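Whiteboard transcription, Tuesday session. T.W. wrote the structure tokens on the left side:
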């Protein structure tokens, strides 16, 4: 490509279709809306009940959203999700593996009961869904897989060894899939959110000492907001990132540098 060909159209997702796991709540809603604002239709599988809020936001952008109640850890469900997207929109262009859970417990009380569900939803489900999606992406010689990593893809994980292990695993999975799929013009990257103001962090933000400790570690001096992730999502889903592959992109206000 000659440099004169580049334009803002490279960030457009017009005519694209995306799967966003857990895309009807939390940070997943921001991923879904970002893709819709850029022009994509969105297929959302989730275990969470859907109240229609995300769908209305997507439709306000002139795009379609299809919701499927789905537990991605159940056998055969990832295949049904991918086929459901293909049936609804005709193809599968983008996958955002955003669904995840984090259980906390002191290390001596953190056993298989806590470990197994987190490995299932945080690591195995993204693998299975991506594995099914590439059945469509390889023949069409295009595709974008965006995994959601974490600060704990780089750091240790007090009170949740499974979360740290799965997020390290997501980073490795991202690089491994890139290594094999780049030849098919498929880009596999990850976004690593820093400390965000979400329901999961409510207790930390409500405690003055914990809140101060987190903020002192963030050069930007504030907690992240869901909207802070939307630009990175569109970039990694668009043609603008066609030569970005196997990368784990921190969106953390500078947390990792301090």
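and on the right, the sequence the group agreed on:
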């Amino acid at each position: 490509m000659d440099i004169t060909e580049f334009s803002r159209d490279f960030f457009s997702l017009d005519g694209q279709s995306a799967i966003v796991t857990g895309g009807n709540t939390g940070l997943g809603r921001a991923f879904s809306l970002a893709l819709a604002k850029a022009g994509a239709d969105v297929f959302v599988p989730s275990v969470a009940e859907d109240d229609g809020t995300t769908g209305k936001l997507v439709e306000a952008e002139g795009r379609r959203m299809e919701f499927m109640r789905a537990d991605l850890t159940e056998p055969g469900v990832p295949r049904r999700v991918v086929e459901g997207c293909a049936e609804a929109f005709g193809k599968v262009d983008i996958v955002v593996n955003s669904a995840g859970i984090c259980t906390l417990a002191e290390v001596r009380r953190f056993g298989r009961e806590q470990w197994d569900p987190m490995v299932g939803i945080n690591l195995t489900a993204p693998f299975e869904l991506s594995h099914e999606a590439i059945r469509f992406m390889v023949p069409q010689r295009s595709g974008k897989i965006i995994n959601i990593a974490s600060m704990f893809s780089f750091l240790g994980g007090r009170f949740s060894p499974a979360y740290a292990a799965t997020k390290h695993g997501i980073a490795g999975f991202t690089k491994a899939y890139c290594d094999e799929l780049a030849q098919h013009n498929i880009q596999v990257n990850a976004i690593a959110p820093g400390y965000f103001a979400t329901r999961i962090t409510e207790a930390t933000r409500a405690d003055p000492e914990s809140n101060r400790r987190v903020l002192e570690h963030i050069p930007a001096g504030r907690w992240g907001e869901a909207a802070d992730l939307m630009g990175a999502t569109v970039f990694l889903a668009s043609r603008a990132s066609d030569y970005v592959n196997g990368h784990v992109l921190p969106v953390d206000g500078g947390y990792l540098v301090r």
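Someone added at the bottom: The helical segments are 26-37, 53-60, 77-89, 112-140, 161-181, 202-206, 208-216, 230-237.
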